[in-house]
Amino acid sequence: MSEAQDTLTEAPESVRGDSFVEVRTDASIPNNVDLESDKQLQRALESWHPKYLEWWREMGPEGFQDAEVYLRTAVGVDPTGWAKFGFVKMPEYRWGILLAPKVEGRTIPCGRHKGEPAWQEVPGEYRSLLRRLIVVQGDTEPASVEQQRYLGATAPSLYDMRNLFQVNVEEGRHLWAMVYLLVKYFGKDGRDEAQALLERRSGQADNPRILGAFNERTPDWLSFFMFTYFTDRDGKMQLAALAESGFDPLSRSCRFMLTEEAHHLFVGETGVGRTIEATCAAMKKAGISDPFDTERIRALGVVDLPLLQRKANFHMSVTRDLFGSEISSNGAEAFSSGLKGRFNEANLAGDDHQLQDAFYKVTRVVDGRFVDEQVPALRAINCRLLDDYIADCQGGIDRWNKTIEKYGIDFRITQPYKGFNRRIGEFAGQRISPDGRLLGEAEWNAGRDQWLPNDADMAFINTLMKPCHQAGQYASWIAPPRVGINQQTGEFEYVKID
Ligand code: BYC
Fold first, then answer.
1. What is the mean pLDDT of residues 31-51?
2. Which of 69, 75, 415, 475 has its CA 20 to 30 A from that of 22?
């Protein structure tokens, strides 16, 4: 994704459809779902709203609640302009409920109901599975805001701080999107789940967020950029799979969420890319060509490339766990019931979208070695999405490597072997090196600090996390962006801090 591309406000193909419903931006909850005609639903959401704001004030960006931030707000789903930019205090952000336009005549794209009209109401036999999927999706949104809540204080520039807050408010909007579905379609259970989404806390021992990666810490900006590149990309893949849902309101919600998600991936890709740029430029200036000359490189106030690789290894492996077990009866049922498709399901050519007789290759560990097994494709749905995800990660990594190559430095960022450092699925409990060797405990312990961020790495990163809050200024370890947000110039004050 190019930096210039992100300045567009035109909605991509994913939100286009056959019919537009005007967005009521003046309503107490901006929406294009005709909320005003369903008073009971409106009241339920209006009573959730203050609790949401309470959560936002308690768990949202620490220390910047009163700052004026240059934010994008979704005001429509019309392809010719769906967002507007302006200064907003975050608690006053207009979180709205926006669904991509309805596609008339849409049918269920996969599973045993393939070809039947898409459901406009919850299919009774799949109620609890559907609710679970929506709750899991919803739970990740506030979790990431909680994980990132202290980062404003150490932002490497106002530009980056603004991007952080943009990501945060949009994760908040994604929570609204899932809460709307729960409250509208699941009655009392849905309202209880909506409440519970505000009660779980990332990393809290007694009431944690549901999925592992969302209980990890995001203690520094490198973690944030890696998270937005790798973990938000799980968001992209899962939202794309849910956008294929036979339950049309979920599909339409996710299609619009994908529009916003693109910016989050952009923040991650360019954040890591600009870090690499600063490192390579500083190395060149200092006449250092060996990327492993760590002490001298760190003395320049930039992040050495091997450390970036270790950070990437951590975030990739933790994010791969988010796809669930490679072989999963839950995954099979979500697909067969038509509640969740594969990536790009409706456009996949060459199979029947039911997969009753199909097989898919899954790598397993059997008797101490890797074995590729042909597994019934239905049970390998999670594995397939994970494989698609791994392929999707590569584009940005290639672009990072181009920068390193441009400076003539002999180093490449790579993806570790799929089974490296996994806690969920086929590789859980195994010790596996990034280059894909099964290891004993002693070998793992000997290699661990070269493969994952070690204590010295974290301490060093911590020394770099100094705020740089003057307009147009950037911390030593990160290069300025090539293009400003919404075409703003380099000196633009993206966040007005009193
Ligand atoms: N940690 O059959 P299994 C995003 C649980 S990110 C902890 O292996 P299944 C975003 C699982 O819940 C996208 N527990 O897998 C990004 C199940 O428990 P129950 C979020 C885990 O169910 C950045 C049990 O293990 N959206 O949007 O086929 C910023 C057995 O499960 C984990 C979604 O994930 C784990 N890593 O698939 C902001 C889409 N993995 O139910 C936002 C909706 C599995 O037996 N969710 N378990 O108690 C799903 O499609 C599925 O729930 C999963 C799991 C793919 C997550």
1. 95
2. 69
